[in-house]
């Protein structure tokens, strides 16, 4: 049995945009940078371009929402040449209590990605509804599991403890396109409060 592919995803908040760094795992720690993205804040229609490095010279992935601000948007993921790799969909009604996404890769079963702990999901939502207190950042440690009926858990997305948003993405099925899963990891952070 081969060990899962692992990636580290880190978010950095700056005054006008969020930045994401995706790095290969090297002995449990972030290693070589493989993707870098900037997200404009307050965009009406979400769109991300991931580049091979921080120079932003070579695009490697593009994530585009199909409509303006909508909790049920579909995101189409393309590689650097524009070829469609798959789609990501946030399930609006299911996400009211536990954030739930679908990852559709052509020729593969749809992966349903759900927040692992129902209790943490409810606590996060309740905290956000308390006036003034809900604006205080709390480093909730929340995780997602992606599964198919045929294979069980095929990916995990785990938040690491700390004030900065840092995640470990593990792919347990080598047939999953890592680029599509990396796009999912970015969306799980960027779209979490929508």
Q: What would you say about this model in short?
A:
This protein has helices spanning 118-129, 178-190; strands at 5-13, 17-26, 29-40, 47-51, 59-65, 74-79, 84-90, 100-104, 111-115, 143-148, 152-159, 166-171. Strand 1 and strand 2 form a beta hairpin. It has a twelve-stranded antiparallel barrel.
Proportion of β residues?
Answer: 35-45%
State the secondary-structure class.
mainly beta
Number of domains: 1
Give the class-level CATH name: Alpha Beta
Which labels suit this protein?
194 residues, single chain, 13% helix
Which SSEs are present, and which pair or pack?
Elements: E1 5-13, E2 17-26, E3 29-40, E4 47-51, E5 59-65, E6 74-79, E7 84-90, E8 100-104, E9 111-115, H1 118-129, E10 143-148, E11 152-159, E12 166-171, H2 178-190
Antiparallel strand pairs: 1-2, 1-12, 2-3, 3-4, 4-5, 5-6, 6-7, 7-8, 8-9, 9-10, 10-11, 11-12
Structure report:
The protein is mainly beta and 194 residues long. It has a single domain (5-190), classed as Alpha-Beta Barrel (Tubby Protein, Chain A). It has helices spanning 118-129, 178-190; strands spanning 5-13, 17-26, 29-40, 47-51, 59-65, 74-79, 84-90, 100-104, 111-115, 143-148, 152-159, 166-171. The protein has a 12-stranded antiparallel beta barrel.
């Amino acid at each position: 049995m081969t060990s899962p592919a692992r990636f580290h995803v880190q978010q950095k908040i700056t005054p006008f945009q969020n930045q994401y760094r995706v790095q290969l795992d090297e002995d449990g720690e972030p290693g070589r940078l493989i993707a870098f993205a900037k997200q404009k804040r307050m965009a009406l229609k979400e769109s991300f371009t991931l580049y091979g490095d921080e120079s932003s010279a070579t695009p490697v992935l593009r994530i585009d929402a199909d409509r303006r601000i909508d909790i049920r948007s579909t995101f189409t993921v393309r590689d650097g040449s524009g070829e469609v790799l798959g789609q990501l969909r946030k399930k609006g009604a299911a996400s009211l209590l536990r954030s739930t996404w679908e990852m559709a890769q052509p020729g593969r079963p749809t992966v349903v990605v759900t927040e692992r702990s129902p209790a943490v999901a409810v606590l996060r939502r309740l905290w956000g509804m308390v006036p003034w207190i809900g604006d205080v950042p709390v480093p909730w440690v929340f995780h997602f599991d992606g599964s198919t009926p045929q294979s069980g858990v095929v990916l995990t997305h785990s938040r690491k403890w700390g004030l900065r948003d840092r995640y470990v993405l593990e792919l347990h099925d080598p047939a999953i396109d890592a680029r599509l899963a990396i796009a999912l990891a970015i969306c799980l952070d960027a779209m979490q409060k929508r």
